[in-house]
Amino acid sequence: CLTHHKATLLFSLLTGHSLQCYTCRDLTSVDKCQTVENCTKEETMCKTTMYSLEDVYPPSGVSTVTKMCASRCEPSNVDDIGMTRPVTCCYSDLCNFNGAASLSISFVPVGILASSLCAFFWTRL
């Protein structure tokens, strides 16, 4: 029926609501990236890039991230060996509250929305 991305776009268009993402464009520790940003119409997803402890100098011993609204986002392949900067993408408000877990959690409400829209349009035919 509708893909999760199209369903999110349709929901945003119907409600006039722009996506909100946590944003920190500079390397920030995961727990301190709390700034909320309203995305533009073209920015339909939240992007998170996790950095390995070796990427940060001086070493802090804390996981660091960059987060932002994005119009394009290419998620990392979780099977890549030696991946030091995994990227996750998600499509619902504030879905990028943490790193890797954001991807799986964000699809649940979108999937429910897509199923509801499919059922609604199917019963109208």
TrEMBL record:
What name does this protein carry?
A: UPAR/Ly6 domain-containing protein
May I have one GO cellular component term?
Answer: plasma membrane
Q: Which UniProt keywords apply?
A: Cell membrane, Glycoprotein, Membrane, Signal, Transmembrane, Transmembrane helix
Locate the transmembrane regions by residue number. Answer: 99-122
Species classification:
Eukaryota, Metazoa, Chordata, Craniata, Vertebrata
Q: Which residues belong to any copy of the UPAR/Ly6 domain?
A: 19-106
User: Pfam families this protein is in?
Assistant: Toxin_TOLIP
Signal peptide location: 1-21
